[in-house]
Write the structure tokens for this entry.
Amino acid sequence: MALEIGQLAPSFTLIDSDKNEVSLEQQKGKNVLLLFFPLAFTGTCTQELCSMRDDIASYNAANANVFGISVDSRFVLAKFKEEQKLNFPLLSDFNKEMSKAYGSLYESFIGMNGVSKRSAFIIDKNGIVRYAEVLENAAEIPDFDKIKEVLAGLN
């Protein structure tokens, strides 16, 4: 089911690549940008997350916590984060519960069942969805200009 702008974001608690529990409730008072991506170490995913790494100052200035999310294990995500020198947390949705809750799960993707769709969600300081973009084509990248515009309007 697709999330609608204006609705309360589904709650979550996931483990990051550094073995920390991260929950939506811990983010109250901050804007949150969730970036679902299909698989670590793939071309478009690496491009997307490295562009986020290189522009993280813009998101920090917008009072936004950025999280990358995939169904990869935290071990894979830790290696990916290290190799790409990513400067924001990567969360493992290994059990696919968050991807389902956010309407961001391929039933089948290049022969694999249950891979996250490339998606972007902005959740405001009160837990309300303010931006939702779910891409059916995994080769596309979210509209980062629009994301920055929405974040700027929240501050």
